Amino acid sequence: MCKYYAQASSQPVKGQEIISSTILSDYFQRAFQSYREFNNGAMPRHVFIYRDGVGDSMRKQVIDMELAQLDRIVSMEYGGHDDNPPQEHPEITLIIVNKRVRQRFFQQSPGNNGQNFIDNPPQGTYVDTGFVEQSEVIDGKFDFFLVPHSVTQGSVKPTHFYVAKNSSQISKMAILNFTYALCYNYYNWNDAIKIPAPCMLADKIAGFRSEVGTIPSNVDLHKLPFYL
Protein backbone atom coordinates (compact mmCIF):
# COMPACT_ATOMS: atom_id res chain seq x y z
CA MET A 1 0.00 0.00 0.00
CA CYS A 2 1.25 3.48 -0.86
CA LYS A 3 0.49 6.90 0.54
CA TYR A 4 1.61 10.07 -1.18
CA TYR A 5 2.20 13.61 0.01
CA ALA A 6 1.87 16.14 -2.81
CA GLN A 7 2.90 19.77 -3.24
CA ALA A 8 3.09 21.97 -6.33
CA SER A 9 4.12 25.51 -7.18
CA SER A 10 4.66 27.52 -10.33
CA GLN A 11 8.12 28.22 -11.75
CA PRO A 12 9.09 31.89 -12.28
CA VAL A 13 10.26 31.14 -15.84
CA LYS A 14 8.48 28.83 -18.28
CA GLY A 15 10.53 25.74 -19.02
CA GLN A 16 12.85 26.24 -16.05
CA GLU A 17 14.19 22.86 -14.92
CA ILE A 18 15.85 23.86 -11.64
CA ILE A 19 13.45 24.22 -8.71
CA SER A 20 13.91 27.23 -6.45
CA SER A 21 16.01 26.29 -3.41
CA THR A 22 13.52 27.91 -1.04
CA ILE A 23 10.56 26.00 -2.47
CA LEU A 24 12.40 22.69 -2.68
CA SER A 25 13.69 22.92 0.89
CA ASP A 26 10.20 23.71 2.13
CA TYR A 27 8.72 20.74 0.26
CA PHE A 28 11.39 18.33 1.50
CA GLN A 29 10.81 19.49 5.05
CA ARG A 30 7.02 19.20 4.87
CA ALA A 31 7.27 15.73 3.33
CA PHE A 32 9.52 14.53 6.17
CA GLN A 33 7.21 16.06 8.77
CA SER A 34 4.18 14.39 7.19
CA TYR A 35 5.97 11.04 7.22
CA ARG A 36 6.94 11.51 10.87
CA GLU A 37 3.36 12.34 11.89
CA PHE A 38 1.93 9.31 10.09
CA ASN A 39 4.57 6.91 11.46
CA ASN A 40 4.49 7.98 15.12
CA GLY A 41 7.80 9.82 15.09
CA ALA A 42 9.75 7.35 12.93
CA MET A 43 11.65 8.66 9.92
CA PRO A 44 12.39 6.88 6.61
CA ARG A 45 15.59 4.85 6.51
CA HIS A 46 15.89 5.01 2.72
CA VAL A 47 14.75 7.86 0.47
CA PHE A 48 14.16 7.18 -3.24
CA ILE A 49 13.84 10.22 -5.49
CA TYR A 50 12.60 9.83 -9.07
CA ARG A 51 13.35 13.17 -10.74
CA ASP A 52 11.51 13.76 -14.00
CA GLY A 53 11.67 16.71 -16.38
CA VAL A 54 15.44 17.18 -16.53
CA GLY A 55 17.26 17.42 -19.85
CA ASP A 56 20.67 15.82 -20.27
CA SER A 57 22.39 19.20 -20.57
CA MET A 58 21.05 20.36 -17.17
CA ARG A 59 21.36 17.05 -15.35
CA LYS A 60 24.54 17.66 -13.37
CA GLN A 61 23.53 21.17 -12.33
CA VAL A 62 20.11 19.98 -11.15
CA ILE A 63 21.59 17.02 -9.28
CA ASP A 64 24.20 19.11 -7.46
CA MET A 65 21.76 21.83 -6.45
CA GLU A 66 18.85 19.64 -5.38
CA LEU A 67 20.97 17.10 -3.51
CA ALA A 68 22.54 19.93 -1.53
CA GLN A 69 19.06 21.09 -0.47
CA LEU A 70 18.08 17.55 0.50
CA ASP A 71 21.24 17.05 2.56
CA ARG A 72 20.59 20.28 4.44
CA ILE A 73 16.99 19.33 5.29
CA VAL A 74 18.04 15.79 6.28
CA SER A 75 20.54 17.25 8.75
CA MET A 76 17.79 19.44 10.21
CA GLU A 77 15.05 16.81 10.40
CA TYR A 78 17.23 13.94 11.62
CA GLY A 79 19.31 16.02 14.00
CA GLY A 80 16.71 15.91 16.76
CA HIS A 81 14.56 18.76 18.12
CA ASP A 82 11.68 19.25 20.55
CA ASP A 83 10.46 15.76 21.52
CA ASN A 84 12.17 14.00 18.61
CA PRO A 85 15.57 12.41 19.40
CA PRO A 86 18.35 12.40 16.77
CA GLN A 87 18.07 9.60 14.22
CA GLU A 88 20.47 7.97 11.79
CA HIS A 89 20.50 9.71 8.43
CA PRO A 90 18.75 7.82 5.61
CA GLU A 91 20.29 6.24 2.56
CA ILE A 92 19.63 8.28 -0.60
CA THR A 93 18.92 6.94 -4.08
CA LEU A 94 18.38 9.58 -6.77
CA ILE A 95 17.16 8.45 -10.20
CA ILE A 96 16.73 10.78 -13.17
CA VAL A 97 13.82 9.76 -15.42
CA ASN A 98 13.78 10.64 -19.12
CA LYS A 99 10.73 9.76 -21.25
CA ARG A 100 11.90 11.59 -24.37
CA VAL A 101 14.37 9.15 -25.89
CA ARG A 102 15.05 8.22 -29.51
CA GLN A 103 16.14 4.64 -28.89
CA ARG A 104 13.83 1.78 -29.82
CA PHE A 105 14.22 -1.91 -29.04
CA PHE A 106 12.74 -4.92 -30.85
CA GLN A 107 12.77 -8.68 -30.59
CA GLN A 108 12.76 -11.35 -33.28
CA SER A 109 9.87 -13.78 -33.01
CA PRO A 110 9.33 -16.92 -35.12
CA GLY A 111 6.39 -16.81 -37.53
CA ASN A 112 4.11 -19.59 -38.75
CA ASN A 113 5.92 -19.80 -42.09
CA GLY A 114 9.29 -20.39 -40.48
CA GLN A 115 10.48 -16.82 -40.96
CA ASN A 116 11.27 -14.44 -38.13
CA PHE A 117 9.39 -11.19 -37.73
CA ILE A 118 10.16 -8.07 -35.72
CA ASP A 119 8.00 -7.35 -32.69
CA ASN A 120 7.97 -5.07 -29.67
CA PRO A 121 9.79 -6.45 -26.61
CA PRO A 122 7.61 -7.76 -23.76
CA GLN A 123 6.80 -5.68 -20.69
CA GLY A 124 9.63 -5.63 -18.20
CA THR A 125 12.40 -5.70 -20.81
CA TYR A 126 15.47 -3.78 -19.70
CA VAL A 127 18.72 -2.88 -21.44
CA ASP A 128 21.73 -2.07 -19.26
CA THR A 129 24.63 -2.67 -21.66
CA GLY A 130 25.63 -1.45 -25.09
CA PHE A 131 23.26 1.51 -25.49
CA VAL A 132 23.73 3.00 -22.03
CA GLU A 133 26.09 5.66 -20.72
CA GLN A 134 27.46 3.57 -17.86
CA SER A 135 26.75 -0.15 -17.63
CA GLU A 136 29.07 -0.80 -14.68
CA VAL A 137 28.14 0.51 -11.24
CA ILE A 138 30.77 3.11 -10.34
CA ASP A 139 30.33 5.09 -7.11
CA GLY A 140 26.69 3.97 -7.11
CA LYS A 141 26.04 5.46 -10.56
CA PHE A 142 24.70 3.60 -13.59
CA ASP A 143 21.84 3.82 -16.08
CA PHE A 144 19.44 1.57 -17.95
CA PHE A 145 16.52 1.55 -20.36
CA LEU A 146 13.25 -0.05 -19.28
CA VAL A 147 10.13 -1.01 -21.24
CA PRO A 148 7.52 -1.31 -18.46
CA HIS A 149 4.41 -1.04 -20.62
CA SER A 150 2.98 -2.36 -23.87
CA VAL A 151 1.31 -0.67 -26.84
CA THR A 152 -1.42 -1.80 -29.21
CA GLN A 153 0.13 -0.25 -32.30
CA GLY A 154 3.45 1.15 -33.42
CA SER A 155 6.77 0.71 -31.62
CA VAL A 156 6.94 0.95 -27.86
CA LYS A 157 9.08 3.74 -26.38
CA PRO A 158 11.50 2.78 -23.62
CA THR A 159 12.18 5.02 -20.63
CA HIS A 160 15.73 5.94 -19.64
CA PHE A 161 16.74 5.89 -15.96
CA TYR A 162 20.01 7.38 -14.73
CA VAL A 163 20.93 6.52 -11.15
CA ALA A 164 22.81 9.67 -10.15
CA LYS A 165 23.37 8.70 -6.53
CA ASN A 166 22.98 5.54 -4.47
CA SER A 167 24.49 5.68 -1.01
CA SER A 168 22.98 2.33 0.01
CA GLN A 169 24.10 -1.25 -0.53
CA ILE A 170 20.96 -2.05 -2.53
CA SER A 171 21.87 -3.85 -5.74
CA LYS A 172 21.48 -2.70 -9.32
CA MET A 173 18.90 -5.42 -9.99
CA ALA A 174 16.90 -4.46 -6.88
CA ILE A 175 16.70 -0.84 -8.08
CA LEU A 176 15.62 -2.00 -11.52
CA ASN A 177 12.93 -4.32 -10.12
CA PHE A 178 11.68 -1.66 -7.71
CA THR A 179 11.44 0.87 -10.54
CA TYR A 180 9.50 -1.60 -12.67
CA ALA A 181 7.14 -2.43 -9.80
CA LEU A 182 6.34 1.26 -9.30
CA CYS A 183 5.11 1.42 -12.89
CA TYR A 184 2.18 -0.78 -11.78
CA ASN A 185 1.18 1.48 -8.87
CA TYR A 186 -0.70 4.22 -10.72
CA TYR A 187 -4.29 4.45 -9.47
CA ASN A 188 -6.01 5.23 -12.79
CA TRP A 189 -4.67 2.35 -14.87
CA ASN A 190 -4.93 -1.40 -14.32
CA ASP A 191 -1.60 -2.21 -15.98
CA ALA A 192 1.92 -0.82 -16.06
CA ILE A 193 2.50 2.74 -17.28
CA LYS A 194 5.59 4.16 -18.92
CA ILE A 195 7.07 5.82 -15.82
CA PRO A 196 6.96 5.07 -12.07
CA ALA A 197 3.71 6.08 -10.40
CA PRO A 198 5.21 8.98 -8.36
CA CYS A 199 6.35 10.61 -11.62
CA MET A 200 2.89 10.30 -13.16
CA LEU A 201 1.27 11.71 -10.02
CA ALA A 202 3.70 14.64 -10.17
CA ASP A 203 2.67 15.23 -13.80
CA LYS A 204 -0.99 15.19 -12.77
CA ILE A 205 -0.63 17.64 -9.91
CA ALA A 206 1.46 19.93 -12.13
CA GLY A 207 -1.33 19.89 -14.72
CA PHE A 208 -3.92 20.56 -12.02
CA ARG A 209 -1.84 23.47 -10.71
CA SER A 210 -1.49 25.05 -14.16
CA GLU A 211 -5.19 24.71 -15.02
CA VAL A 212 -6.88 25.39 -11.68
CA GLY A 213 -4.38 27.73 -10.05
CA THR A 214 -3.62 27.80 -6.35
CA ILE A 215 -4.08 24.49 -4.57
CA PRO A 216 -6.42 24.74 -1.56
CA SER A 217 -4.56 25.55 1.66
CA ASN A 218 -6.21 22.72 3.61
CA VAL A 219 -3.15 20.66 4.51
CA ASP A 220 -5.16 17.41 4.54
CA LEU A 221 -5.65 17.73 0.79
CA HIS A 222 -1.90 17.33 0.29
CA LYS A 223 -2.24 13.76 1.51
CA LEU A 224 -5.07 12.88 -0.87
CA PRO A 225 -4.99 12.37 -4.66
CA PHE A 226 -7.53 15.15 -5.23
CA TYR A 227 -5.76 16.16 -8.47
CA LEU A 228 -6.54 12.93 -10.35
Question: What descriptive keywords fit this protein?
Answer:
228 residues, Nucleotidyltransferase, domain 5, five-stranded mixed β-sheet, two-stranded antiparallel ribbon, 4 helices
CATH topology: Nucleotidyltransferase, domain 5
Strand content: 15-25%
Helix percentage = 25-40%
- CATH homology-level superfamily: Ribonuclease H-like superfamily/Ribonuclease H
Q: Helix/strand/pairing class, anyone?
A: alpha+beta
How many strands, what sense, and barrel or not for the largest sheet?
5 strands, mixed
Q: Low-confidence runs (pLDDT<50, min 5 residues)?
A: none
CATH class: Alpha Beta
Main-sheet strand order equals: 1-2-7-6-5
Q: How would the global form be characterised?
A: globular
Chain-averaged pLDDT: 87
Using DSSP, what is the number of strands? 7
Domains counted in the coordinates: how many? 1
Q: Radius of gyration, Cα only, in angstroms?
A: 19 Å
- Cα-to-Cα separation, first versus last residue: 18 Å
Order of helices and strands: HEHEEEEEEHH
- Supply the number of helical segments: 4
Compile the SSE list and pairings.
Layout: H1 21-38, E1 46-52, H2 59-78, E2 91-98, E3 107-110, E4 116-119, E5 125-127, E6 142-147, E7 159-166, H3 172-182, H4 197-212
Parallel strand pairs: 1-2
Antiparallel strand pairs: 2-7, 3-4, 5-6, 6-7
Helix pairs in contact: 1-2
